[in-house]
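Lab meeting, action items carried over

1. Structure of the two-component assembly. Owner: GW. Status: complete.
Input record:
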Amino acid sequence: MKNLKNKYFINGKNFICELKEPCLEDLIENFLDKSILNESKIAVAVNNQLIERCKWKKKKINFQDKIEIVAPFFGG
Amino acid sequence: MKSDYLVIDGKKFNSRLIMGTSLYPNLDVMNKSLEISETQIITVAIRRINLSSKANFLDQLNKQYSFLPNTAGCFTQKEAILTAELARETLQTNWIKLELISDKEMLLPDPIELFDACKSLVKKKFRVFVYCSDDPILCKRLEDLGCEIVMPLISPIGSGLGVRNEHNLEIIRRMCSGKIFIDAGIGKPSDAAKIMEMGFDGVLLNSSVARSLDPISMANAMKLAIISGRLGYKSGIIEKRKMASESTSFKGKISNF
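Predicted assembly:
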């Protein structure tokens, strides 16, 4: 079995984790605390394209992909 | 006076004040300022999730509001459209306050990028609240595109300079029959009252309240100014004259001596 420990690029920083067949949902579950994932209103883009929550499981992730995870924040 | 609701996207609102949620000294002051302002719509930004904080911004609000997410900080159409789509996904709203700026120093809207971004967002079924410059033709073109609310500035964001080009505002109000809010540049309550007296539909503000010495009191002042200006406008302000016009009749006055 090859080494599956790999780097991902999330919110402008490298994130390292081991995933067998990386899909967006698994990656986000590894990146975020469960409470944040369940309670927060978050949205995700991969390579500057919105991926709706219902499609996270099917969305395969490549190691070069740029992932953005966002939430509402104070703003004027 | 008959009820004077503001209708946005089919929903009725009593308040004509949209409040920002940034720059407050702390959460308690923000919540109290929002409450006393009686705003029903607040703006929020869309930002990378903060992993160090477990507190969710929305959970820290004391009241329920309609959310108006913004695209603050976007310089290109692509950035703004993606931010709008992320906002829709996270907040489940089609509303978007489109901000597309051209530079970091003046934060002035880029009218060319803005126009094309509006076109795309309207096509994607967003209700666009567009922050734009006080150019009457641009405002009219944005209205004709199908924007929900056109929101010209009166001076740069956070400047507090108030109305810099009253004549342009008069033309905008005359040319655009749809809803026009003033966004950016409000410094004091009289700025808000003046705008409302001119017949604009509402005001969006943040810095003038959040950065004041007493934001809660200022939020109250802004609310009252907007109500006052609106009432004045609806009551029919008298025309200006170059000459005096007596308020007390000369009839019955004792004879001149």
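2. GW to write a short summary for the group page. Key points so far: Residues 37 and 223 of chain B are 5 Å apart (CA to CA). Chain B has a mean pLDDT of 95.
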